[in-house]
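Re-run with default settings, no changes from the original entry. Doing this only to confirm the output is reproducible before filing.
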Amino acid sequence: MASFDIGKLDDVIHGRVRLGVMAYLAEAEVADFTELKTLLDVTQGNLSVHLRKLEEAGYVSIDKSFLDRKPLTRVRMTDAGRQAFAAYLEAIAKLVGDGR
């Protein structure tokens, strides 16, 4: 089983919440903080920590602004994030025997 290489999994993406963020953004292009918090069923603090980790890795960009005097945080996947997510999916496919 030479293709089995757990080391190919990106630890930044592999966590449940971060994987959820990346999977959602791969389709949605952009999401606001509240949308992600509700979708992933996490606390505000928990989501903030995970988004910071993705941002530090360069996988997402975070834009903060105000809408009707209320804070609005929007998250987008970067090109580097798209590449990392594609590589992650490829590594998972190999790990579970998809044969890619």
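The CA atoms of residues 26 and 62 lie 15 Å apart. The chain has a mean pLDDT of 92.
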